[in-house]
Amino acid sequence: MIHGAHAADIYELIKARFPVAELVESSAPVLPVDEGDDELVELSRTDWWEQNRFRVLRGLRRKHDMSQEELARKSGIARSVIALYENGRRRITLRAAEKLGKALGEDPRKLVTE
């Protein structure tokens, strides 16, 4: 389940690209299981989320109008490594999440994929 201070940002990024409904009682973003199906599932339990959660870094960087180069300078992480994170080819470590979060002015927990 997506929760906490960063939930709204992540939800808005997802909602902009995919049809998303909400459960009123939990306010957790959910997706229909199939077209025409009324069953809803938590977004974090979908294959889509597992395949795309790495995109949060790119979304946050763009939200703050930063290039990869600028984020690299501010975080002390090489631009090539940031590109690997943004393309899902490398997992963001806790230490890197702290540096990136500080550079972006965001909670580093938004960037950790587990």
Q: Largest sheet, described in full?
A: 3 strands, antiparallel
Mean pLDDT: 79
* Strand percentage: 5-15%
Shape label: elongated
Question: C-alpha Rg, in Å?
Answer: 15 Å
- Could you spell the SSE succession in H and E letters? HEEEHHHHH
Tell how many strands the DSSP assignment holds. Answer: 3
Number of helices, counting only DSSP H or I runs of 4 residues or more:
6
Strand order of the largest sheet: 1-2-3
Classify the helix fraction into a percent range: 40-55%
Q: Which stretches of 5+ consecutive residues score pLDDT under 50?
A: 23-27
Estimated structural class? mainly alpha
Q: How far is the first residue's CA from the last residue's CA?
A: 13 Å
What distinguishing features does this structure have?
114 residues; mainly alpha; 3-stranded antiparallel beta sheet; 3 strands; elongated
Summarize the structure.
The protein has 114 residues and is mainly alpha-helical. It contains 6 helices and 3 strands; from the N terminus they run αβββααααα.
How does this model look, in words?
It is a single chain. The chain has helices at 7-15, 47-52, 56-63, 68-75, 79-86, 94-104, and strands at residues 21-22, 29-32, 40-42. The chain has 114 residues and is mainly alpha-helical. It has a 3-stranded antiparallel β-sheet with strand order 1-2-3, with no helix packed on it. The protein has 6 helices and 3 strands; from the N terminus they run H-E-E-E-H-H-H-H-H.
Present the secondary structure layout.
Elements: H1 7-15, E1 21-22, E2 29-32, E3 40-42, H2 47-52, H3 56-63, H4 68-75, H5 79-86, H6 94-104
